[in-house]
Amino acid sequence: MTIWAAQPPPGPAQEWAEYATEVLAHAGISHAGSDAGDAPSGVVLVTSPVTPADAETLAAWVEQGGALVVTAEPGPLSALAGVTTGAASSTAQVTVHGDGTDVWTHVPPRPLRAVGGLALTPAEGTTTLASWPDGSAAITARRHGDGVVVTFGADVLQSIVRIQQGFAVVADGVPASDGTAPIDDDILKAEDGMALDLETDRALPPGEGPVPDDYTHTYPPPSAVPMFDQPHADWWRSLLLQSVWWAAEETGVLVPWLGYWPEGISAIAHMSHDSDGNKPEDGQAALDAFADAGVQVTWCQVFPGGYGPEIYEAITAAGHEHALHYNAMHDADLASWGWPQIRAQYAWAQAVTGRERIVSNKNHYTRWEGWTEFYTWCERLGIEIDESRGPSKQGTVGFPFGTAHVSFPLAEAGAGRTFHDVLNLPLHTQDLAWAGHASIRDVILDGAQAQHGVAHFLFHGPHLNIRPMTRAACVELADEARSRGMQWWTAERINTWERTRRGVRLDVTATDEGWTLRVEAQTPVTGAAILLPAGVRVTGPDHTLTQAVRHGRTFTELAVDLPAGATTWSLTR
Known about the structure:
This protein is of the alpha/beta class. It has three domains: 2-162 and 234-256, Class I glutamine amidotransferase (GATase) domain (Rossmann fold, 3-Layer(aba) Sandwich); 264-498, TIM Barrel (Alpha-Beta Barrel), CATH 3.20.20.370; 512-572. Helix content is 25%, strand content 24%.
């Protein structure tokens, strides 16, 4: 797959187009940028405005059977795309059409939040795949000669990043008008920078509601309240991938990709624990609850104080992961926002746990300031995966940052880098049956499964100790996820898997009989799942083939233990 060479950005503005490489890398789709004079090939993704000369080259190529996906302002490509452009949108909801098109295999059940984009007016012969609120097209498809063009008027890449990473946190956010999400609490936290809208992007869990007129934000919740029930960023990612696979299928191109998880696994679950209070009796209660649940958790250790050596040794013996729970709540010395403070707390966690290499963190109370500075601190410490971005209020549970997937954050404009080397692992809710209504559990599991991501549930020792309903909810949650085929992984295991699978490259070369698939792995990968178009036949080194449905599309899953180095297979239809 090719990302068509972009013109240099016009100034210091954030270059959202750069995020295309992260979307493709996470999907395990090998890709390359085009150089001046290159001929287009495979599926071409246009992420930045092109020159008139580029447009002529791409038009001739599409007419001869090329596949083009445009996520940038079409400009000189407008005639090829069969659209004219209209007014710009800063943010709005987009309705994706499920009927009358064969492009989509999986569509969101209700409108998606788009951040940025242009209205499109389709010409005759151009199909509207999604619409803005005023009825203008937000995504279109058109056949041109023997080829196809899909055009995103909605800024799909900016939408993914903005929803996942939000805006810089500099002040309290605006609370929900129904009182269910009082985020204006004089504490700067991740939710204060949300791009999703509390009034229009939430919904009640199925079968619940309405919210009582006298609702107050108390614990446990007096009723179910609206939640961020849909992972908007993941839906945008899915729509972009679906357009690539459709364009490839229509033009006879093969685009293999690497399953997000090992063979046969469509989604996983993650449980974390915060050691708030550091009381040994709470720590022991948590150990007992997790033993009953049969889950190894990421145990986030919070400064100041500590459980004492017996509890820390028991946590290690049970196979739980020791992580940092960075405290910037101003409730103790060193408990404030800043590099010296997190550095000191990291050293404290190393000392009390006896674990030198701590790779995971979650911020106490989901504290956050700025946009991405925190990731630079993680990089300096050696923290490789952070799970701070999630809810602190009943009305912000679910997918407040629109995702169940791990991802590398886009760096700020002018930072001298494109991405931060810290995986973001989203948090979805805290303490079922205390901080979150029991009805949200299955909505979160459903959303993570639908997008093949991670469902992340947090518990606290004090609630597992003194609140029987929360303890029971923890054990029932563990059983429910396993009954769905979801395995429970620690953050460290997720981090190791994601970084290992990103060392795999899939290359396809056409032959007289079909294709040669060459897989290059930097290190061995046990249980790799290579997804190929349904019906493809495979010959070569030991493997198994099954059918797998991902993003609503049926694929042939080539399951194999990859050795380091290159392995090749022959593919035929």
